[in-house]
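U., I forgot to send this yesterday:
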Amino acid sequence: MMFFLRASKEAIWQFRPSIPFFNTNEASVFILTYSPEINSQQPFALTPNLINSFEPGDLRRDIWVNEILFDSVKYFYPFKYKQNSGPLTEYSIVFRLAEMYLIRSESRARLDNLGGSIADLDSVRNRAKIPLIGNINYGISKDSLLLNIEHERRIEFFSEWGHRWLDLKRTGRVDVVLEDRIGYDSNMKIYPIPQSEMDRNPFLSRQNEGY
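Result:
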């Protein structure tokens, strides 16, 4: 599961850090050393909702998630990148093999090739050592299979390049999933038009709703 090393066999596209004795921006931001509520340099923690979404025995939960106790409060944080200083061992991965499998799995499902879709999905699940859909629910419906793929993408790509947000937007499920989240408003799924663009184009006379 050490797919974020510079010699990763799963990497398709990755960035080499350019600062000596500095590994990735991901590690420097995500690896918590203090409470994220008071540390502006490391302001993120994983939600209980995500932590509870891992299936029992999922290796990704064990290897890609770490925790810190601060003032008797436990915070979980992404631990895909494990080195924020020292000799260069990790590159920032943009695109990796698991994404290819899950893209093809979703494509096959939408084309009604459910058997092929399950095979691709199970390639990722097998790596995580969790039960295979082909063994426990081979007769799964197309709609349910697509939801399983969405869930697998959430678990596989958490804290990577905004995958979750973009997946929910492109599938039209963002309001359904986020409607009960504190601070979320439906307008947020559409970005504001930059004022500089509105200044350049007289036909952009109206800002997107909510901004």
